[in-house]
């Protein structure tokens, strides 16, 4: 065995010598800043209007979710995951339930899987709508936020009718579903899809051809596919860079292989492309919801699972395509009632790591657009 | 009145048939595993690793259809470099740790890698003694920068050659590492809370 195998990793590159330049300026953005979408602090190093570097200071919303998990039973912890990415609570719950189900090795009935897909896709639309409204607001367009919240309300109404909660839904249970769908469930979902198809035209009319919007987003915050992989950036940001990768297609879960849908991609990997990719994803989500509602099978909604959830000792990593990227749960069980260790792989946290790379060389006014385009939720970044 | 049956008094006890002795319910033989039941991992990738590395990799396992290897912590950088450069594992999904205080080497560090070309994941696990250091893979994957900072923040495990190893979620001056098992859920750094939040307790 050659000695090179045990060679230590190379030392980190020496930091660049700082020149005493009177133009260099370090300013602080946040943590109380309306466009940081929460409590994110960014330390910006500027040369005039140009950004030389950006350092994120996070942790203001740290609640120790992973520590809480170790002190709760598997069922008790389920509502906590909704509080991480609170605009896509359904996806969080889906990922958590699937991770525990993987450890338990149980089969989920087809009806439960289809309802899960429907609700997760409606949640993806709601999450993208909130992103679009606030992102446009950051850049200076006031109107879209009102329109987006109007449509998002319809999505939240479906959740409210289904499980009683609008945001922190706790819609799924380990092993399947808690509730059977309500009488008008299918009708509501189809009506929502029709509404979205119609309203998307309105958004495109407002923004896509708008000269101010195009000038503020084209060529801003470029991240190519190789850098995306290097930084672990997933979701719409990766797809906007041209990589056709979506966990729903690459490693289908919860019956996604049965539905016919496309993965929207773009080429340039800039802010405008990410906008177009997310808009197209809304259309594709509507397609999935329609197919799932039309083929909604009858049958039980909960798998064969006991009242006491006690997975055998073992570990599993399960990830899903959340609206913001790859959301993973790494669960370690020691055979007791509580998870021994539960690690969340949050897409927002990882994607935010690329902020420095995306900001370098851009103008200080564009930092706001770049933070918006990554689509972060600080509740998930800090957990 | 003396020979009338008082209300509430029924037939004498002896008339009742004696209750049959309950049959003990036979205990179902329940097989409960006490350790993770892994099966050996075989496949082209495992063979490639076996061909390149020897005793650095101590276990090739599969659990619930997910492949993992247990390795010597000194060889982690070399194995990750091999997987990235020669087997196209170009995406570090996650990097985390598990604390097993009763074990001789209490910290288990977990690297999860994914290959876009092969559409497959693999986990690398390595154990560390208390106070031991793991090699940083930041030179290979930029994702590791923040992930290693988080492991340091939560477990106090240090990484060699990390460009800027400092706390990420907890305040910089915080004492203690919250995700270690001996750190109680109600515990906090009282001095820090008093000094910075100007309150007696955050609970």
Describe it:
The complex is a heterodimer of chains A (383) and B (203). Chain A is an alpha+beta fold. Chain A has 15 helices and eight strands. Chain A has a single domain, classed as Cytochrome-c3 Hydrogenase, chain B, CATH 1.10.645.10. Chain A has helices spanning 65-70, 74-81, 89-104, 110-139, 143-163, 185-208, 211-217, 225-231, 236-240, 247-250, 271-294, 347-352, 355-359, 364-374, 378-382, and strands spanning 24-29, 41-47, 50-57, 172-173, 176-177, 314-322, 325-333, 341-345. In chain A, the strands form three sheets. A three-stranded antiparallel sheet of chain A has the order 1-2-3. In chain A, a hairpin with a 7-residue loop joins strand 7 and strand 8 (341-345). The longest helix of chain A is centred in the N-terminal third of the chain and has 30 residues, at 110-139. The mean pLDDT of chain A is 87. Chain B has 203 residues and is α/β, with parallel strands linked by helices. Chain B has two domains: 37-169, NADH:ubiquinone oxidoreductase Nqo5 subunit (Beta Polymerase, domain 2), CATH 3.30.460.80; 171-203, no CATH class. Chain B has a six-stranded mixed sheet. Chain B has a two-stranded parallel sheet with strand order 7-8. In chain B, a hairpin with a 4-residue loop joins strand 5 and strand 6 (120-128). The chains are: A alpha+beta (383), B alpha/beta (203). At the A-B interface, helix 1, helix 8, strand 6, strand 7 and strand 8 of A face strand 4 and helix 3 of B.
Summarize the structure.
By secondary structure, chain A is an alpha+beta fold. Chain A has 15 helices and 8 strands. In chain A, helix 3 runs antiparallel to helix 4, helix 4 packs antiparallel against helix 11 and helix 4 runs antiparallel to helix 14.
């Amino acid at each position: 065995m050659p000695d090179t195998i045990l060679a230590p990793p190379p030392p980190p590159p020496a930091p660049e010598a700082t020149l005493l330049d009177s133009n260099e300026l370090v300013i602080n953005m946040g943590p109380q800043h309306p466009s940081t979408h929460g409590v994110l602090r960014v330390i910006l190093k500027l040369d005039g209007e140009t950004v030389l570097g950006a350092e994120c200071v996070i942790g203001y919303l740290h609640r120790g979710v992973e520590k809480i998990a170790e002190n709760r039973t598997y069922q008790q912890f389920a509502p906590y995951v909704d509080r991480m990415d609170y605009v896509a609570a359904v996806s969080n719950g889906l990922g958590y339930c699937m991770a525990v189900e993987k450890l338990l090795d149980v089969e989920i009935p087809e009806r439960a899987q289809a309802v899960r897909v429907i609700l997760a896709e409606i949640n993806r639309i709601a999450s993208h709508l909130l992103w679009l409204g606030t992102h446009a607001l950051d850049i200076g367009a006031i109107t879209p936020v009102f329109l987006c919240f109007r449509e998002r309300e319809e999505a939240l109404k479906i959740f409210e009718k289904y499980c009683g909660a609008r945001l922190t839904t706790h819609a799924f249970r380990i092993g399947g579903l808690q509730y059977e769908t309500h009488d008008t469930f299918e009708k509501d979902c189809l009506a929502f899809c029709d509404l979205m198809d119609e309203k998307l035209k309105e958004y495109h009319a407002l923004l896509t051809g708008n000269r101010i919007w195009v000038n503020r987003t084209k060529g801003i915050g470029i991240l190519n596919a190789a850098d995306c992989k290097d930084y672990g950036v997933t979701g719409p940001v990766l797809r906007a860079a041209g990589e056709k990768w979506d966990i729903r297609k690459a490693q289908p879960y919860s019956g996604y292989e049965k539905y016919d849908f496309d993965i929207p991609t773009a080429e340039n990997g800039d802010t405008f492309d990410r906008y177009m990719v997310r808009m197209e994803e809304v259309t594709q989500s509507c397609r999935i919801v329609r197919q799932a509602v039309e083929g909604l099978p009858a049958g039980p909604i909960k798998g064969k699972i006991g009242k006491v959830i006690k997975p055998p000792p073992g570990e599993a990593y399960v990830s899903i395509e959340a609206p913001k990227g790859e959301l993973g749960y790494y669960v370690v069980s020691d055979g007791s009632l509580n998870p021994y260790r539960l690690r969340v792989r949050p897409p927002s946290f990882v994607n935010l790591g690329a902020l420095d790379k995306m900001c370098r060389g851009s103008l200080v006014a564009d930092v706001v657009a770049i933070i918006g385009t990554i689509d972060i939720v600080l509740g998930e970044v800090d957990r | 009145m003396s020979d009338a049956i008082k209300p509430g008094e029924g037939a004498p006890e002896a008339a009742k048939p004696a209750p049959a002795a309950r049959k003990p319910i036979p205990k179902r033989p329940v097989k409960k595993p006490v350790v993770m039941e892994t099966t050996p991992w075989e496949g082209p990738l495992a063979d490639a690793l076996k061909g390149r590395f020897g005793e650095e990799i101590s276990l090739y396992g599969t659990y619930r259809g997910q492949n993992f290897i247990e390795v010597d912590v000194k060889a982690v950088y070399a194995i990750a470099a091999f997987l990235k450069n020669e087997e196209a594992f170009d995406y570090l999904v996650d990097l985390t740790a598990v604390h097993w205080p009763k074990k001789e080497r209490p910290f288990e560090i977990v690297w999860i890698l994914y290959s876009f070309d092969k559409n497959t994941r693999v986990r690398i696990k390595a154990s560390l003694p208390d106070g031991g250091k793991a090699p940083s893979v930041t030179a290979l994957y930029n994702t590791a920068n923040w992930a290693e900072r988080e492991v340091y923040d939560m477990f106090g495990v240090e990484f060699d050659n990390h460009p800027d190893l400092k706390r990420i979620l907890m305040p910089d001056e915080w004492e203690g590492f919250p995700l270690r098992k001996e750190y109680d859920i109600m515990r906090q750094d009282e001095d820090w809370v008093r000094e910075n939040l100007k309150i007696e307790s955050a609970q």
